[in-house]
Amino acid sequence: MVVSVKYKKRFLDLVDESDYSRTELSSILNLNLTNSLIYGIIPRPKTLIKIADFFEVSIDYLLGNSDVNDFIPSVENKTFHERLSLLVAENSTSYYKVALKCGIDKSIIYRWLDKGFLPSYETLELLCDYFKVSPDYLLGRSDFKK
């Protein structure tokens, strides 16, 4: 569980600037927003995507890592799994080497690929740092690597 004051502040700002009450947003997004709004707990990537899509912002902007919202949605409609495979090929590496460099078990990568799971937020950050791409690119939300 990752807690971020920057994320909490940015999310509160987005909610307050929206045309919806917090209760309405919880209902629209089908999420319990308490952990994010009160404690600043960063949700799993699937939920981050849902929130960022709703507000039409980049994940870096949503998390408070950037003050510029220059998000341009992907036209390629790639999934996290397709992007991960593409980045492994582009970097002439292997899943084993990626797992080793990121400090994760290689079986987890195969579970993502075989079962369609997404990594935790912490692991997503490690992968983005390793490949030097944005979370939006790796998750298939944007076609721009940075």
CATH architecture heading of the largest domain: Orthogonal Bundle
User: What value does the average pLDDT take?
Assistant: 95
The first-level CATH class name of the largest domain: Mainly Alpha
Q: Could you state the oligomeric state of the chains shown?
A: single chain
In the CATH hierarchy, the third-tier topology of the largest domain is known as 434 Repressor (Amino-terminal Domain)
Number of domains: 2
What would you say this structure looks like, in words?
By secondary structure, the chain is an all-alpha fold. It folds into 2 domains: 61 residues, 434 Repressor (Amino-terminal Domain); 59 residues, Orthogonal Bundle (434 Repressor (Amino-terminal Domain)). It is built from 10 helices and 2 strands. A two-stranded antiparallel ribbon has the order 1-2. The longest helix is centred in the first third of the chain and has 13 residues. The protein starts with a strand and ends in an 8-residue tail after the last helix.
Give the SSE layout:
Layout lengths: L1 E2 L1 H13 L4 H8 L4 H6 L1 E2 L2 H11 L3 H4 L17 H11 L4 H8 L3 H10 L5 H11 L3 H4 L8
Antiparallel strand pairs: 1-2
